[in-house]
Amino acid sequence: MTTSQRREPTIVVIGAGVAGIIIGVILKQAGFEDFTIVENGSGVGGVWHWNRYPGLTCDVPSQLYQFSFAPKPDWSRVWAFGDEIQRYHCDVVHQFGLSAHLRLNSEVTAAVFTDPRWEVTLADGTVLAADFVIAATGVLHHPFTPDIPGRDTFTGEVVHTARWDDAITTAGKRIAVIGSGSTGVQVVSALQPKATKIVQFTRTPQWVLWAPMDMRQPRLVGRLLSRFPALHRQLYDILLWGSGIFADVVTRPSWRRQLVQDSARWSLRAQIRDAALRRELTPDYQPLCKRQVVSGSYYRAISQSNAELVTAPISEITPTGIRTTDGRDHEVDLIIYATGFYPHNYMRPMTLIGRDGLSIDDAWAKGPRAYRMTAIPGFPNLFTVLGPNSPTGSISPQYAAELTALYITEWLQRFRAGEFDTVEVTEEATTAFNDAVTDAMGPTVWNTGCNSWYFTEQQTIDLWPFDRATMTALLTEPDERDYLFTTHEKADATP
Ligand code: NAP
Questions:
Q1: How far, in Å, from the CA of 302 to the mean position of ligand 1?
Q2: What is the mean pLDDT of the chain?
Q3: For 16-58, how does the pLDDT look when each residue is reduced to its tens digit (9 = 90+)?
Q4: Which of 130, 310, 346, 483 is most buried, judged by most C-beta within 10 A?
Q5: Which of 18, 178, 456 to mutate to test the pocket of ligand 1 (most atoms within 8 A of CB)?
Q6: How far does residue 211's CA lie from ligand 1's centre (Å)?
Q7: Which residues contact 238 (CB under 8 A, 6 or more apart)?
Q8: Which structural domains are found in the chain, ordered by start?
Q9: 181 Cα to the center of ligand 1, angstroms
């Protein structure tokens, strides 16, 4: 690499969710001020901005589901509700001075590499020039609504959980919920007590691990943690260490995996006494294979007399409800789609064009693929935070995103020092990383024979199969040998 003069990079961050907030704070902490965070929504928080369905809770303890740089001692609950998590994100944005960098209600429609810079186009026609683009676009942001025959004929109310409409009332109604993932379970648990009738349509039953999710965090705990920040830090470190153990539970067979799986089976046996209902709720795959559902109230809710579990496949939607293949008509006032997301879109559907006109759709024709979750061959000076293979099913996403953000700032520091104009990961390094991922997926629980949203269309598993120590090692120090560099004096690749 040749050295030229020092300069400040202009950076466009796409997305102001958990990953976007993290990269924003870490950029500021590293002294980078020339950055804009472009966000499609009207507020920050990503999934916590878009999801407002009744019962929305985070099934990760809040003392872990937070940023390491913004410890919050006084969560009201051990597993906080969505609105408290969302308030926390807004507070962090304010506390760290990110508001001035935000451009809300702005969809990025295109990002094109015009060597050596990027041109980022917004829906209103504005074009932002940038030295670097950081895609912090998240994973679960494009709601999926199945194209069931007759879908548009229903005359009652319809909503997808990820686009909840606050005008909808649910008390005293006959409600259909389609889906049995984490969202379906939370929404059924929340709405059952006041519904006239709630019918859950389940295509594949899920294991539901019991946890006391409605437990309050005692005020005294909050006061103690505020008073003794070192104690709070210790608690965070212990929970982080615990999440490391959980990663091990899902990545390889062990007595710990067995223990968690036995607990899931026990949760079902202990809470569902009715043998026929228990049979219908019993999955035919191992616990933890799909994204594990955690709830302290679901089995109680689905056992109540106003609740019904329907496992017969849906054949069509009619003007008055849902018809199943056994010929039954389920008449309802409201249909709730808890049917998940298109999870492998990442920054798409925007037009993303890298070096030599390479589009992201062509680069990812065989599925999303990156080097260590963050760099994509053919896309110089572009990084992702929580990109392909991020640990959505194991390690804390905040931990992964903070590590990745620090890794990216290493490259920004070197750009600032004038060491290069563009940096691009090599195809060879990306292939080697992805080969290692494929090998490591072998003994994971996700690979034990279930159909989950973790699978791409090409049947690869889009998760992190390694432990936390490996993640830390791979993202602590950029390895120059895995990258190509250009400078303006000499546009050749100079490793
Ligand atoms: P999901 O896990 O993808 O579940 C979608 C559900 O819809 C599945 O039960 C699926 O059945 C069903 N479905 C899809 N198409 C259908 C059709 N045509 N007919 C009948 N059923 C259909 O989505 P999600 O529950 O929204 O959760 C997505 C992820 O968000 C979770 O896995 C988790 O990572 C995250 N999340 C986290 C929390 C939290 O507390 N931290 C809360 C909510 C969500 P099949 O299983 O048969 O495909």
A1: 17
A2: 95
A3: 999 999 999 999 999 999 999 999 999 999 999 999 999 999 9
A4: 346
A5: 178
A6: 19
A7: none
A8: 11-44+98-140+342-486 (3.50.50.60), 151-218+220-337 (3.50.50.60)
A9: 4
4 pLDDT band, cuts 50/70/90, is low
pTM for the predicted model, two decimal places: 0.95
Indicate if the pLDDT at residue 5 is higher than 90: no
Q: How close is the Cα of 289 to the center of ligand 1, in Å?
A: 13
Residue nearest to atom 37 of ligand 1 (CA): 182
The tens digit of pLDDT for each residue in 340-360 reads 999 999 999 999 999 999 999
Of all protein residues, the one whose alpha carbon is nearest to atom 36 of ligand 1 is 182
| Nearest alpha carbon, ligand 1 atom 4 | 181
Ligand 1 neighbourhood includes 178 CB (under 6 angstroms)? yes
Distance 47 CA to ligand 1 centre (A): 14
Report which protein residue has its CA nearest ligand 1's atom 31: 182
Q: Which atom of ligand 1 is nearest to the CA of 65?
A: 41
338 lines ligand 1 (CB under 6 A): yes
Residue nearest to atom 3 of ligand 1 (CA): 340
Q: Is 200 in the pocket of ligand 1 (CB under 6 A)?
A: no
- CA 210 distance to own-chain centroid: 22
Q: Are 354 and 378 in contact (CB under 8 A)?
A: yes
Residue 58 near ligand 1, beta carbon < 6 Å = yes
pLDDT by residue (tens digit) across 207-228? 999 999 999 999 999 999 999 9
Ligand 1 pocket, 182 CB below 6 A?
Answer: yes
